[in-house]
Amino acid sequence: MRQDRTLIIALVTLFIGFVAGFVLRPVIVPVAQAPVAAAPSALAEARGMQYFAAHLDEARRIVAQCRDGSVRGDECANADAAVIAAEGREQTERFLGKRP
Question: pLDDT averaged over consecutive 10-residue blocks of the chain (100 residues)?
């Protein structure tokens, strides 16, 4: 009998805590608001590797800015990957010669 009562009390306590968590969640962790003075580049999506493959001069400029620390994020990785792929193609063409 005593074990049954302990089990029921434990289950009721867990249920009350679970419900209280859902009810008090907006108070404990408020909804994040958008930044007031965000830079335009922070709101824009990072350009992809395909964009940088088509615009290699832009990619090289972004890679240089990433090394300086003035640009960060996914754009650095995408630009760097595009530059590396372009340099690899150039080296292959120099080694094998231009193919038709």
Answer: 86 90 76 55 69 90 89 86 91 80
Distances (CA, A) of 29 to 17, 73, 77, 98: 16, 27, 33, 61
Q: Say how far residue 50 (Cα) sits from the centre of its chain.
A: 18
**DSSP, res 72:** -
66 CB burial (10 A radius; 0-12, 13-18, 19+): middle
Distance between CA atoms of residues 86 and 56, nearest Å: 8
Alpha-carbon distance 59 to 80, whole Å? 7
Under 8 Å between Cβ of 49 and 82? yes
Tokens of 45: 């999506």
